[in-house]
């Protein structure tokens, strides 16, 4: 019992008894995780890992689409079966260019996720709620907006090549673009109208049903025999360009509006206790009228001691 020391109250010390190996194991496998929970590093790692997994998932899924969307019942080559041979040749050559552009777009999307997730990790952690709704959610909105801008811009270049050469063009990332577009609308619905989302299952996707149908670009096979159809095909190319710019602008505008609402909620929560106490005092004073006082006195006289 000579080693017992009741002054050993440091959180990094295992017990009142000095035990060097035990203290080291305790500090390594108990203290460090506890410290990372306290300073929020564990939660920051979770959000960082989540974004990284999403980045790798999109790249793998996109790489799968680059080649496997060429074949099958709805594949590129199945859809150009009835196209003239010369257009098949030019379309196939241009589709090689489209593959390179799409692959570059995937790399850029990964770079966006990687950059934004690392910047998010460096932000200050005040509390889990503040980090989730004050930092993580705005970062996700920006990431998705920038991702859609890149994907739609790639679709614009690819479709423009097809329009200018009256050839079918392969756009392998169309399916992924439509999927992310729907997810983006769902997230900004939650950010701007959270109460409606929970009560009425509200979503902005319904308001943009026609747009979403147009943006469901798939493999984007447009083949035509002469330049008479050029204006219609060129309009589709411009639609992709406008979508790229529009989604980017919407993402940044929504984040600014969301941050303003978030600030108002913060102010309201801080103000409520100051507002509630005077109301409670006033309500109590209103109840203490002369009639109420007389009734209380009579009740006290009648009540047994």
Question: Could you please describe the fold and organization of this structure?
Answer:
The structure is a single chain. With 305 residues, this protein is mainly alpha-helical. It contains 10 helices and no strands. Helix 6 packs across helix 7. The protein is elongated. 23% of the residues are buried.
Quick recap of the structure?
This protein is an all-alpha fold and 305 residues long. The chain folds into two domains: 1-38, no CATH class; 43-272, no CATH class.
Shape: elongated
The value of Rg in angstroms is 31 Å
Distance between the termini: 60 Å
The amount of beta strand, in percent, is under 5%
Largest sheet: none
Oligomer classification: single chain
Number of domains: 2
Helix percentage: over 70%
Average pLDDT level: 76
Classification by helices and strands: mainly alpha
Order of helices and strands: HHHHHHHHHH
Unreliable stretches (pLDDT < 50, length at least 5) are 215-225
What is the tally of helical segments? 10
Strand runs, count: 0
């Amino acid at each position: 019992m000579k080693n017992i020391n009741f002054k050993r109250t440091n959180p990094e010390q295992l017990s009142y008894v000095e035990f060097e190996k035990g203290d080291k194991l305790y500090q390594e496998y108990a203290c460090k995780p506890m410290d990372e929970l306290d300073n929020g590093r564990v939660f920051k790692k979770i959000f960082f890992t989540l974004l990284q997994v999403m980045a790798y998932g999109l790249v793998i899924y996109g790489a799968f689409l680059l080649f496997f969307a060429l074949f099958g019942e709805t594949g590129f080559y199945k859809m150009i079966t009835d196209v003239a041979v010369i257009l098949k040749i030019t379309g196939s050559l241009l589709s090689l260019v489209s593959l390179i552009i799409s692959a570059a777009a995937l790399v850029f999307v990964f770079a966006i996720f990687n950059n934004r997730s690392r910047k998010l990790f460096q932000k200050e952690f005040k509390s889990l709620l503040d980090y989730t709704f004050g930092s993580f959610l705005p970062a996700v909105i920006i990431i998705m907006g920038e991702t859609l801008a890149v994907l739609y811009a790639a679709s614009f270049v690819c479709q423009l090549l097809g329009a200018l050469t009256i050839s079918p063009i392969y756009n392998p990332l169309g399916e992924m673009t439509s999927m992310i577009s729907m997810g983006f609308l769902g997230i900004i619905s939650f950010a701007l109208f959270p109460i409606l989302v929970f009560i009425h299952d509200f979503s902005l996707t319904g308001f943009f049903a026609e747009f979403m149908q147009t943006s469901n670009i798939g493999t984007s096979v447009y083949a035509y025999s002469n330049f008479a159809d050029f204006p219609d095909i060129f309009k589709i190319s411009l639609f992709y360009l406008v979508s790229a710019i529009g989604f980017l602008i919407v993402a940044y505008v929504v984040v600014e509006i969301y941050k303003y609402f978030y600030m108002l909620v913060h102010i309201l929560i801080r103000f409520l206790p100051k507002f509630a106490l005077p109301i409670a005092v006033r309500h109590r004073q209103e109840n203490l009228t002369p009639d109420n006082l007389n009734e209380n006195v009579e009740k006290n006289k009648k009540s047994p001691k």
